[in-house]
Amino acid sequence: MALIADRATDRATERTADRAAERPAERPAARPVGRRDADGMAVASFVLGLLGLLVLNLFLGPVAIVLAGLALWRGTARRGRALLGLGLGVADLVVLVTLVSMDNTVSWGLAG
Fold this sequence. Notes:
Oligomer: single chain
Structural class: mainly alpha
Mean pLDDT: 78
Number of helices: 4
Radius of gyration: 29 Å
């Protein structure tokens, strides 16, 4: 009786090993999607902050600040780019305040 139980156990072990051999090899661990999104946010904050120095700084400055903050909070690998985006977003708002205070109007233009 014990011999029959041993053979059944051996057969079950062989079936499990055969199934494991049929499965494709597991992929190596890729970067998490959240990290990739955070890297994209860091780049976007940099680009929007840079663009905001020229146009739409009232809108693009805060967006660059928020994206940089989210990228840093999520642990981006592009930390320097996120910090540049944060600085450029703040610079957008500083430029806006400076030009508006020189003009004494809510809108501003480089032509004067």
